[in-house]
Amino acid sequence: MNKKIQVYTTIALCLFYALLAPILFPTLVVFWILLGVLILLSLLAKNWVDMILLFLIAGNVFLHQLMYPNLDDTRHIVQATAFTAFTFLQITLVIGPLTRINKRFAPLFRHRRHVGVASFLLAFIHANFVIAKYYEFNPELIYSLSANYFGSTALIILSALAFTSTNYFQTKLPTKYYNLIHTGLLLFYIAYTLGLSALGILNLETFHYVIFTGFIIFWVLIAPWSLPAKLFLRVNAWKQLHYLVYLAYLSVIFHAWKGYFVLQPTSMQTTFWVTIIAVVSVHTYGWLLRLKKRNASNSQSQQVNSQ
Q: In angstroms, what CA-CA distances link 268 with 122, 157, 261, 264?
């Protein structure tokens, strides 16, 4: 089987499952059947990256069943997909910095988008199960918790990043279209937040609006037509859009903490924050190395020009 066909088939099956399974067949048996089909497709296409990711998902679900045997099928699917999506998102974030820290990680770099799309698909399955089974599609119930608003913020951003993760979008789409995507997504996010607030469905506190404002400022600053256009001779518009992953990560942290981990034992809370600190530390060190390399390159250029 052609890898491209296998990848797009996998994405399509996951999207159909996310949309239909919570209503029509919300059982673990169907979830395991889906995983089995996807593993078989990846085996036929010899797509070992997909196979590894699928086995990690399967292992997470199986472990969750062993640790919490008294939970129902929906709870297993919701929590296992959430944990795995969060893990994959963190892996996506650290792959880039790790390649700068040690060249041995360089082969992982070309799989970063792959892991990111897997994170989105798992998050989409998680969200649809939660909305259908726990909130019965009732907006007032969904947004009664601020954690769900931040979860939806992450999902909006991740959906845009997943959609633009193909080779065509990365290499061939002109900057003017990225200007439209970046601006359109920002306007949608603003309208989404303020619209729900105006309707009385979403009741955010002052602190939440401060975060919302900070998100908008960051969104504007990284836009291809904004600060990058003034700082760089050439702007990678695809990369500027994908810097929104940082907002998605912050949103997921808030969503996961307020919606789940704050009620869990200290051991789980500690593990949650340790992983976040590790990701931030690796990312910070990677950025410092990048800055150091750029400064060294600029210094060499100045020396050459002065001779």
A: 21, 27, 7, 6
